[in-house]
Batch of 3 targets.
Target 1
Amino acid sequence: MQHIIDRFLKYVKIDTQSDPKSKTTPSTEKQWHLADLLVEELLEIGMEEVSIDNNAYITATLPSNLNIEVPTIGFISHFDTSPDFTATNVNPQIIEDYDGKDIVLNAHENIVLSPDYFEDLLQYKGQTLITTDGTTLLGADDKAGITEIVTAMEYLINHPEIKHGKIRVGFTPDEEIGRGAHHFDVEKFDADWAYTMDGSQIGELEFENFNAASAKVIIKGKSVHPGYAKNKMVNAISIASEFLEILPPEETPQNTEGREGFFHVHHIQGSIEHAEFELIVRDHDKDHFEKRKQLLRNITDKLNSIHGNCITLELKDQYFNMREKVEPVYHIVEIAKEAMEAMRVTPIIKPIRGGTDGSQLSYMGLPCPNIFAGGHNFHGKYEYIPVESMIKATEVIIKICELVAKKAV
Ligand SMILES: [Zn+2]
């Protein structure tokens, strides 16, 4: 247990926060610090074909120890952390034999991780938790995933009696700013399929995510003296509000869950002359997704015909539901499920209300379901991870490698 803790602590103490405003890859220079260390470590444990490219994408190979044809599978994680919260001076706290009570993260600032609010904590009574000191995020998202993959590869190298095919490992920068897959060389990675180790609580197994689009609505008005405006003024603000009122009020993030889609207006600004707002469109179902986009077009057309072509709609697809790409190869989900059950982990299969690198990779030709890495409360100071969940995730990786080989015999 200490070994996996040490490895994890080493990674989280290195600040790798990404930055959506940056145009470079990786988006921040500091991501190289961990990237370089990971390369060293992969070499140290005995991985082959260890390589890092100009964008800090790391790949490595564990060669097959069988002389039969076995599918090549991959495991992928990201080493950046969220821009939402600082990752400078991460100072992890280790709580052994958790007693189910409040955890004081920071007495000075009265920051408490409490099961009254985060009831998931209670399922980890008796386990070893790693938390923050209340001033940073932890970075279990997704350094837990990296820890688990490296530890699993090390285990397989040290236990050649466990038979497996060729295993590929990929670590990426900038997942948290939606670019983790952008420079991923799927062809060079050359795996039949892969798993991102980037889910949350123990048991999570995901192969469905949103279809996603973003929209910007720009309205051009005409400012005229309000006292003499009759039939002349075009108030961009009123038209913006007219537009927004047509959107179904119950289909918003705060009113939906499960497989329900939504429109989410997240930014608006305006004057009489010019107004604009931005929204995102989300839906698991492809048809519903298309209908949502069509609704935006219809509203635009309708208001344009009333107010005289003052609205421009910019609609952009962002990513799609990986289900479409994973379903035809559903056995890759079944293998993960079987591996979890073999390690006495109950699979929790549910649609992601967001996207993953795996969804983009799936559309780039690498089907890529997502498996739990074990952490909770990502992207903030209440982030924590039970060490036992990290160990289970490591075991699941090893088991998947074993099962893929067994099924090929
Ligand atoms: Zn993540």
Target 2
Amino acid sequence: MKGEKEATTELRLVGEITVLRAKSMDDAEADYSWRIDPELAGLDATRPVTLSFTEYLRYHRDDVAYPSPWSVRMAIDTSGGRHIGNCMYYDINSEKLQCELGVMIGDRDYWSQGYGTDVVKTALAHIFTTTELERVYLHTLSTNFRAQKSFTKSGFKPLRDVRRDGYEFILMEIWRKEWEATNPVEARSQSADTSSTSTSPSALQPDTDPLMGS
Ligand SMILES: CC(C)(COP(=O)(O)OP(=O)(O)OC[C@H]1O[C@@H](n2cnc3c(N)ncnc32)[C@H](O)[C@@H]1OP(=O)(O)O)[C@@H](O)C(=O)NCCC(=O)NCCS
């Protein structure tokens, strides 16, 4: 039913070279190391976290135990089971039928090898086959050419420049009809099968992450 959240079981989305899965307490150490990293924070137009690991664990525990109805947070694993980053869709808006997507591969050894493209394709397949959302958008720094190229390969198109908090972003988007045009029906039903969780948009309000700057 529209506006009703059904997510109760563990999320697991299988891509070609990655698996997106529900966040777990075991992710805390790697997540913390990425959150305090100045370069990663800079690429995300935010500041590194200054909390101690013990303080950070409190936020992490709450995130895992009490998922927000307005966002879906996922860990990115390689197909071999190595945790390399995180992906979330958030600000899920059931009026405008849209959400924002965020992706971060924290492990530099896995940059520029197609992992980001696979993650975003997998997340889009999930969103467009299991929710009623019509549009997915994202903001990326205008200087982040690797991210722009990766998102373009996943189907996003640049919409316009956005200036926010002194940063220059490119707003990119993909609409359901565009995604469906490049994903045949068979691929769509396969994508839906990879998920053990169905999540419907239920939000009218934006989601917030006290540790995230963008
Ligand atoms: C942005 C990110 C998700 C992209 O994922 P990825 O796995 O590294 O990217 P992909 O391999 O899918 O695609 C990157 C493409 O950009 C190319 N590229 C890399 N550096 C580039 C540069 N400086 N300029 C132009 N293209 C570049 C790669 O060669 C690749 O293209 P190809 O497949 O045609 O060779 C990942 O790099 C990441 O999380 N980085 C750190 C955090 C970050 O930048 N976050 C952005 C949030 S908006």
Target 3
Amino acid sequence: MNCNNHIINNEYAANQKKYLKSLLLFPLITFLILLLFTSSNYCAASEINLIENSYGENKPMAPKILVAYATRAGSTAEVADAIGKELAAGGTMVDVKPIKKVQSIDGYQSVVLGSAIRAGSLLPEMTDFVYAHKDDLRKVPAAYFIVCFILRENTEENRKTANAYLDPLRAEVTPVDVGLFTGKMDYSKLSFWETFIIKYIVKAPEGDLRDWNQINTWAINLLPKLINSQKEK
Ligand SMILES: Cc1cc2nc3c(=O)[nH]c(=O)nc-3n(C[C@H](O)[C@H](O)[C@H](O)COP(=O)(O)O)c2cc1C
């Protein structure tokens, strides 16, 4: 009888332990999930300058070009703005805006689309946009550019990889030109987990490696392709 009581007491204690453990684990897991969620959203778009500019507004008869971009940390926005300025300096009217704010490409004679690269891919809003507007985009000259970090080592193989990032867009709409640009790594613009991965796992150093001369030259050479390869609407 005593022995039976002892076994029952042991079972009871073990069950109590299990219960207490699960009671502690639940808030701990919830806390970790919340931490993951909030930290990945920490440093969201509010801290990033989502540039929206119009250039060449004093030339109402000039061709109108849309330069739309997808960014996470802001560097692609600045590249898009530099391209927009350069295209306008060549005598066009240009709107520079985040792709998420573009409803349609009506009213634009040509379009330039640029995306940051994350985890080996274009940002989803860029691929979604091209897919959604492919019929309209096929009727106008369109150019693509990417801003990435793989080109910080400018090898043949890395250029191939960077060029291949654009394949999903090429599959929908053939561009008149593509620009492959090295970007910027600024840990202060990344979430906790992104910083952790980039700093300690990928080990990509911080730095602004954008080559403004290359970017501006690309835009200057792009202009005649955007103007002269007008397609039948
Ligand atoms: C989490 C993360 C993942 C990235 N993945 C890639 C990648 O797969 N390939 C690449 O070339 N660059 C990659 N980069 C580098 C970015 O493309 C580069 O920093 C770019 O300038 C970011 O553009 P943004 O500032 O407009 O967001 C990555 C950067 C971060 C923060």
